[in-house]
Specification:
With about 230 residues, the chain is an alpha+beta fold. About 30% of the residues lie in helices and about 20% in strands. A 4-stranded mixed beta sheet has the order 8-7-10-9, with no helix packed on it. It has a two-stranded antiparallel sheet with strand order 1-2. It has a two-stranded antiparallel sheet with strand order 3-4. A hairpin with a 5-residue loop joins β3 and β4.
Length: about 230
């Protein structure tokens, strides 16, 4: 009786152990596969992120904004070598204007090429060329600074781009004549179209010395000539 009960219990236990083992093993295996697949997805995402970062718009922008080619500069991209300035040519206003990187030394011995009109409508007076170069300032056309008028006897001259000529054709006390002379039409070394007593050819106008050229408080020039 006891032997039969023992054998019956054994018969019931064996199938239950076999089924439970297979099911538990299978579930564990599936979970392991799922875990492996999840690891690959994360890795792939990491790889893709790295690739995207390498080719990002920001990366390209950084490359575009790097140092300019040697000898090339602009207002937004100044020269990077110590002691160099960005020397702009005439008519160099605008965001796309470029200049050349050069070492500039102003010692007062430079040839007088006259005042320079800047892009904001202001004028660097006197012999301004070297100072404008040294400060890396773009250069505007002279007309950009023709922003007013001044009196020339019976005439009215344009600021900066003209100068006044007063001529006495007879003895002292005679009635003078007046003329507004365009800087570009005069014999001058005023290369930037703005007048200055230092770059107007006074000898060509009939002046015996520089005392015949007068500059008023607004930096406008009047040349007075006494004919024999």
């Amino acid at each position: 009786m006891n032997k039969r009960l023992w054998m019956l219990g054994l018969a019931l236990i064996l199938p239950a152990c076999d089924g439970g083992g297979d099911g538990s093993g299978g579930s564990a295996g599936s979970a392991g596969s799922a875990g492996s697949a999840g690891g690959e997805t994360t890795g792939a995402a990491g790889t893709a992120g790295s690739g995207t970062g390498g080719n990002s718009t920001t990366g390209s922008g950084g490359s575009t904004g790097s140092t300019a080619p040697v000898g090339d500069c602009s207002v937004a991209m100044p020269c990077t070598t110590a002691g160099e300035s960005c020397v702009f040519p005439a008519n160099s206003c605008g965001s796309d204007a470029t200049g050349t990187c050069k070492e500039i030394t102003c010692d007062g011995t430079e040839e007088n090429h006259g005042p320079i009109c800047l892009c904001d409508g202001e004028v660097f007076e006197f012999n301004a060329e070297c100072l404008v170069w040294d400060q890396s300032k773009p250069i505007a056309p002279a007309d950009n600074c023709a922003n007013g008028t001044f009196s020339c006897g019976t005439e009215t001259c344009t600021y900066n781009t003209q100068f006044c000529i007063v001529t006495y054709a007879g003895p002292e006390g005679s009635t003078p004549s007046y003329e507004c002379r365009n800087v570009v039409d005069a014999q001058t070394t005023c290369l930037y179209g703005i007048s200055d007593c230092g770059c107007i050819n006074l000898t060509d106008l009939g002046c015996p010395d520089t005392s015949c050229c007068y500059m008023d408080g607004f930096y406008q020039e009047t040349v007075t000539i006494y004919l024999p």
